[in-house]
Design a protein that fits this description.
heterodimer, A: mainly alpha, 0% strand, rod-shaped, B: mainly alpha, two-stranded antiparallel sheet, 2% strand
Chain lengths: 196, 244
């Protein structure tokens, strides 16, 4: 590596030797007027052509490109903004729909509940009425039974009494006299035995 | 030291001698590098403006960044009135920049290291700006030499100073660029000569200097083109918006 650098440096030393000693003239080459006119001429031509081509062809294109990009970006931003607004509106709509449907569901539930309650009440009322009627009927029957019960009991008492008498004394007893006794007894103890 | 660092600035004829009347307009190495610089600018910016994609490729980005850079520079220094001169200042900036940058390649010729070239550019700017000023403001443009709020006794002196400073504009503008380029290139050549004369043992120090100087010179090449363009903008601003 070092060897390589060494040889390279020697080579370049030789290479520059000619350059270094080649042109040994004093003064500034800038002040040598020999090529001034040529430099002015070529400067005018090259700079003039450069200016004309840049100003007529290239710079308008670049400025157009920049403006197009700016407007395109602006358009995109506007489109994005619009879409965002749209999506927000949609979201609002969706929310509205959901709240509305929630409300409706609540209403339906309430209505159904009320209806069910009403029906239940109605049924209960009819049932109550029926029950009351039945109770009344039964009570009436009971009353009827109660009314008819003492008569029947007297009758049974008379019969059984006559049977008993017959068995006991072996003689027919006038049923009317027995019934008179039973009636008398029942009248006396009726309250006690068949409490009303 | 054996080397002559001024050799690199010598102009020599390429091809035959061309004469128009008494004037020698032969094609020289200076002309060659002017053409190379202009052509490179045209090729790069043509490629950069050819197709417009939303996401620019590298060369398009380069062209558009240069465009916005120069246009921002002009609007910052000379205002919106300077818009018609955008193309000229853009061409000027790019031409000077490319000539400076091509000069940084070894064995090339630096066009802007010649006083006649920079002086021609500067005097063209000077004459153009003066014409624009007189067209815009008529003789009112002479108010440029009379600053407001100056005591009457000092006025003759101030006016003379202002006139001298105005007339020296092309000289200062051209000498600034020319001297910077020449000094930088001469220094690089001198250090390069040191590397060779000190050889393998002592040459490393000037070599490292030379490397550092190359970086510096690239910076200077850009900076001087920028300064040249921005001073043009400032002169244009004086002509367009008379502040005094």
């Amino acid at each position: 590596m070092i060897k390589k650098i060494f040889f390279q440096s020697i080579f370049f030393n030789l290479f520059f030797f000619k350059e270094v000693f080649g042109a040994e003239s004093g003064g500034m080459p800038q002040l040598n007027t020999e090529f001034w006119i040529s430099q002015i001429f070529w400067l005018t031509i090259t700079f003039g052509v450069l200016y004309i081509i840049l100003s007529k062809l290239i710079l308008p294109k670049i400025s157009l490109n920049l403006e197009l990009r700016k407007s395109q970006i602006q358009d995109n931003i506007e489109a994005a903004e619009k879409q965002r607004e749209n999506s927000e509106a949609k979201l609002k709509e969706f929310d509205d729909i959901i709240t509305k449907s929630k409300l409706r569901a609540k209403n339906i539930y309430q209505e159904a509940r009320e209806k069910a309650f009403k029906e239940i009440n109605l049924k209960r009322e009819t049932l109550d009425k029926q029950i009351e009627e039945e109770i009344k009927k039964v009570e009436q029957e009971i009353k009827l039974l109660k009314k008819s019960a003492p008569g029947k009991i007297n009758k049974i008492a008379i019969e059984s009494a006559s049977e008993l008498v017959k068995e006991l004394i072996g003689a027919e007893v006038n049923s009317s006299s027995i019934s008179a006794i039973v009636d008398d007894l029942s009248k006396r103890n009726g309250d006690k035995y068949y409490g009303n | 030291m054996a080397t002559n660092p001024m050799t690199q600035f010598e102009v020599y004829r390429i091809g035959p001698e061309i004469k128009v009347g008494a004037f020698d307009i032969s094609f020289t190495n200076a002309s060659l590098f002017m053409i190379i610089s202009s052509l490179s600018i045209l090729i790069i910016f043509n490629l950069g403006s050819k197709k417009n994609s939303l996401l620019p490729n590298k060369i398009q980005l380069l062209a558009e960044l240069s465009y916005t850079f120069v246009s921002k520079m002009i609007s910052d220094t000379a205002g919106s009135k300077a818009k018609p001169y955008f193309s000229f200042i853009f061409s000027l900036f790019m031409f000077v920049l490319f000539c400076n940058m091509f000069g940084m390649i070894p064995y090339t010729f630096t066009v802007t290291s010649h006083i006649i070239v920079t002086f021609m550019l500067a005097s063209f700017i000077f004459i153009g700006v003066t014409i624009i000023g007189f067209l815009k403001h008529g003789f009112g443009y002479l108010k440029l030499f009379v600053p407001s709020g100056v005591p009457v006794i000092l006025l003759p002196l101030i006016v003379i100073i202002e006139i001298i400073s105005y007339l020296s504009r092309p000289i200062s503008l051209s000498v600034r660029l020319f001297a910077n380029m020449m000094a930088g290139h001469t220094m690089m050549k001198v250090f390069g000569g040191f590397v060779i004369s000190l050889g393998l043992i002592g040459g490393w120090l000037p070599l490292s200097f030379s490397v550092a100087l190359t970086g510096l010179e690239i910076l200077v090449a850009f900076l001087q083109a920028y300064v040249f363009a921005i001073l043009t903008c400032i002169y244009l601003n004086d002509a367009l918006n008379l502040h005094h």
